[in-house]
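User: Predict the full complex structure for these chains.
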Amino acid sequence: MKKHNFSAGPSILPQEVFEKSAQAILDFNGSGLSILEISHRSKDFVAVMEDARALVLELMGLTGKGYQALFLSGGASLEFIRVPYNLLTEGGKAAYLDTGTWASAAIKEAKKFGSTEVVASSKDQNYNYIPKGYTIPADADYFHCTSNNTIFGTQMNEFPETDVPLVCDMSSDIFSREIDFSKFGIIYAGAQKNMGPAGTALIVIKEELLGKTGRSIPSLLDYKQHIDKESMYNTPAVFPVYASYLTLKWLKEQGGVTAIEAKNNAKAALLYGEIDRNPLFKGTAQTEDRSKMNVCFLLENEAHTEQFDKLWKAAGISGLAGHRSVGGYRASIYNAMPIESVQVLVDVMKELERTVAP
Amino acid sequence: MKKHNFSAGPSILPQEVFEKSAQAILDFNGSGLSILEISHRSKDFVAVMEDARALVLELMGLTGKGYQALFLSGGASLEFIRVPYNLLTEGGKAAYLDTGTWASAAIKEAKKFGSTEVVASSKDQNYNYIPKGYTIPADADYFHCTSNNTIFGTQMNEFPETDVPLVCDMSSDIFSREIDFSKFGIIYAGAQKNMGPAGTALIVIKEELLGKTGRSIPSLLDYKQHIDKESMYNTPAVFPVYASYLTLKWLKEQGGVTAIEAKNNAKAALLYGEIDRNPLFKGTAQTEDRSKMNVCFLLENEAHTEQFDKLWKAAGISGLAGHRSVGGYRASIYNAMPIESVQVLVDVMKELERTVAP
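Assistant: Here is the predicted structure of the two-chain assembly.
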């Protein structure tokens, strides 16, 4: 039976990425060698890395605008540390927006490096909205926000206008919608949601921001050293980078970010439409801040849990359980999720309505 | 034509690891999902991580001896930073042995954290030997060494007797030979030589050593936090960990470290035997410190380069070029390399001798 994978991450990728990457494990580019055993300095893999880095800038409209794209290991959580190391001056101040678990984790790490001001937080309502109307201190070295909150199903629709460098963790909605990426100083994202398998993170950096903190930065945490070594300061995660490259190529073939955004809008409209229409369900996030990537919802009546769970599992749906911080259900509908799978979920919700009707 | 992959890393892995991991990308454990799209918290992957961690301790004879095994992202180079963060006290001192490029890189990072004493170095002879007879200061927080030097083809046959905690970078010879692993406080290794594909690193830690520096450690750099979260503090590199797990299982099926050491000894004896016998070649490392993983050698007469290169390429050999620091040739003969492939290289060396004979 076909599976419909609504997992929050690692998560669904295009079927052709699975097929091509499995083939590359058996024989990479007709070399007679597996992609798992080739040198990262081999001509063919250097080309993959260079093409992937260029493709990132192209898809973001940042080519020739002073940005560098890196594929580094360690996960987006390592960027929680690299960002203050590279941007927070000794005695300086960082500003953060607290919109959920991962934003809080980033704040916790920044505090180990210096003064950290949380300009606003939605913790008071279990992060079910995005704070607005906050002020970013003009003397902050940077402002950090999280564009999409995987756990709480909220997403920033607008980014602040400010002269302070914008740093954004886009782990769970990167490449899902048109944004003016040139507004940002640093964008980073773990690959394992919209971009590839777990094991690599993408970092896009406006190069002119670097080298100003006066800190002694450990080499592997220094963005400048990674830029100088063209994202090969140390051995990159060859296979995760390759699978991410295949995913980026797929995205370009789909028509890029503009085209995928239209599809993502249609999927989100279909699912939120059903949540709002069906009397058995309710969404958890405030309507204007709803995420188009992670759709969190609850049963109005928990007595229907067993029956609903039985229905969606029987339909081949997996990964629908909500995060423990919110409960209920979370349907992650990333770029690679076809609208047909969203329709299967909507049909199951309708079926539940029919079977429990009085 | 069959390829014989002598690459220094990423490098050859067992053929069954390629086949099983390609299959898992198409369908993991009969789940109908790819291993690239499953949650790292899924039951099946948690089992992989737990089994892999247990298998590491079993293969090292460390089960029940107060050690923890972790599979972390970032590469062995990140351990150059994690080690001083976790073991070097404020105002304390670290001791390092300088045996090559990677040892030097580790020293460079440690110096950013505090006093670092290099107890001995073989830089004076382009790292072609392992220093001996050095003294480790009794007041050092730890002593760091590199068991095998991939670039220079040298290997430590003995480790010092000392009360100072021993930290060892075993990236390029881990699981290749019997060692009393319980002598070490921390052992670490990038996966991409003897253990798996690039993208994860193994860290084995004697737990009682942690928590003593008084430093404020960023979470992702704190071994204790990774131990508390059972190597899932953040999303692990799912696929690289899985492929490493398959490689460790293969090693156990081969008879474990004892059995593979016998095979490695036979391969090294075959190749060094030919280097010493064949008048056209000479080894670069001092005989008593020769590596059984990376065999570095030169042509006595560079005029034979073109002919030799033509011969080994025609025989299906790849990855034989030496590192620029040494020149010549480097045959990396890791665990997964069959002796038949080493014989192919030896036959080519003999063929060169026949063709250039007067």
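Residues 29 and 44 of chain A are 8 Å apart (CA to CA).
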